[in-house]
Amino acid sequence: MVLWVCGKNVAELEEGIVWELQGIFTTKEAAVAACKNERYFIGPVELNKPLPEETTSWVGCEYPLG
Fold first, then answer.
1. Can you give the pTM of this predicted structure?
2. Would you call 33 helix, strand, or coil by DSSP?
């Protein structure tokens, strides 16, 4: 099952981007609807599927939204 993360970028640091979770949704449309401004993003995650430990790009992540 694929769920959709909605997040908000709050800061860009030397170590990377700081973001806050805004919600988890069952559809892409619901995740997009939760985006309020250009600092918001969405991305798919598969339920019960571990992610690799190394840093990778987030396939399907869309930014900016809102």
1. 0.88
2. helix
